[in-house]
């Protein structure tokens, strides 16, 4: 074998080794990212999860607002990425506890009875004004001594929470907005920022308030994380300091 042939063979071998190592590294990183996503959402491959839909305020029986349907699309993409199976159920037809299957519950307590139950049992420090009469506190979220008011088309708020009952239990994700567009904004924020949330909370329960800015102009896209209210939300209101 002369030097030219030897150099060609060595080059081919080096290229194959480099390509194989690159493929292995990319595969390893992809699998690690997938495992972390599955752990955060409680969605191992082949598992089942619930998506609990609310009803459209003022709509016909069983109707869902367009923006709430968009929220479903935002979350269903995450579920598909994890290789899990999605079951869509109406808020008033769920008759089971939580922890056995991951759950995504969308909509405030006025339009979603399941949300109202989760707030009462797992976030007792949160109070939502359920009045249907016009006024500054209509739909306001009260938690930790703060009041987060809704200003139509200008300021919307949404509670985004990940709730677990203990080690090994599957999480409930609660997206409780003041409007349908804030529900979509909360779902989109979860889809875009789940890596940051996973790093910050390391699998623990959390509850944050998001602010949706000028939804008339920007829709669900301009969202700020306004406050972490985990401790206040999980403490009964009467005992909140």
UniProtKB/TrEMBL annotation:
Membrane-spanning segments: 6-29
UniProt entry tagged with the keyword Transmembrane: yes
Keywords, alphabetical: Membrane, Transmembrane, Transmembrane helix
Protein name: Aspartyl/asparaginyl beta-hydroxylase domain-containing protein
Native organism: Streptomyces flavotricini
Upper classification of the organism: Bacteria, Bacillati, Actinomycetota, Actinomycetes, Kitasatosporales
